[in-house]
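Session log. Operator J.P. requested a structure for one protein chain; no other inputs attached. Running the standard single-chain path with token output.
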Amino acid sequence: MIVAGLCRLLARKGVRVAPFKAQNMSNNSAVTVDGGEIGRAQAMQARAAGLAPHTRFNPVLLKPGSDRTSQLVVRGHVAGTVRAGDYFTHRAHLAEIVHSELAELRNEFDAVLCEGAGSPAEINLRATDLANMGLARAADLPVVVVGDIDRGGLLAHLFGTVAVLEPDDQRLISGFIVNKFRGDPALLAPGLEQLQALTGRPTYGVVPYADGLWLDTEDSVSVLAHRVVGDPQPPRGRQWLRIAAIRLPRISNSTDVEALACEPGVLVRWVTDPADLADADAVVLPGSKATVADLDWLRERGLADGVAAHAAAGKAVLGICGGFQMLCRSIDDPVESKAGRVTGIGLLDADIAFAAEKTLRRHENGLSGYEIHHGRVTRSAADDWLGVGLRRGAVYGTHWHGLLDNDDVRRAWLTEVAPPGFTVAADVDVGARRDAQLDTMADLLAGHLDIDVLLALLDGGPSRRPTIVSSI
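Structure written below.
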């Protein structure tokens, strides 16, 4: 969000700015204008900069399929599957790609904002690092460490981050930004002064916590941390509409339900227990990076039976991408899980077969959305739904991500599934809400960061700060 806010802030100043994340690890992705896929965060940052998403903004993407393996996406397209232990063998090749893409962006734009990944203090991964100090040292970049004070222990984290780095990495750390601060900044000020005395590095600003920032979350971390999506607003009528979104273990593109949470009176909750379906007016099965494995998890938890019972009662079920595939009669998967043919939940009379080549498709004419999936419909006796999916009664399925961002589609679906007494609002514009969030972040940064000093870093490069301790 800091990078997105800076992109929007600089774009508003007339600076031609681009985002860059050398390597992302996320199952939330978006399709680009050049026909590839990148992390959704970089697509959001591109939007903040007034740009269409492009693969060069995130040349390496890792999409976890299990705790130890990830699908490797290079320049927008699948390049194989890698294990954590053998990633080192790919490092030299990927570094060449990363540095080439960054160099081209720096030639084309006035400024490029490079987001790190995880923490630069993960010294056990330094030898294979592409996105943090590995990139900074190779491209001679000034580095600002952003710390989330809402997690606690921030001053120790900032000091320790610098302290454990190699001397040549330490010298690139120019300063700090404190994020998500609650309370009186005057109480924090003495600590920041001591931090500067200890490290020789200033803090460029303290960004206050903002409750209203929740759209376009980077990955499933927010899904794990918060049960309720967004900031539910009171209904326009006399009734709430309750939606249970199932938090799959390998959930992907969890942001699809955020559009629903923008609606007044719509309460979207992440659930993992069949009992949580009881009071829901509708159930959403989101996307998954491990469709067959997550389908097994649904059955083990009793959620598959719960979804079927929900549909049998005439209540709405919506499956998106992997969730859509689970609702079909069968899934033949020799690609992702290599399980072969398995039985689906069977609420939609259709069959799915996984192809080795991933479908990557961006839709912008009429309805907007995008597709990222290996599974394809090979047989269907279900009804067509809007030309973007299938329907059987109150059960809906689509491969389209972002479909609910289309205001007319979302309102029509909510009207069909809503309980008596619920009034569907006619004035919610999700696209405008997303832009408003980016403007809010830019305004926060403008009001609480020393922007002139940060701009000077863009012009002057690394400040070559001294080392503070010997690296461990």
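Operator note: The longest helix spans residues 430-448.
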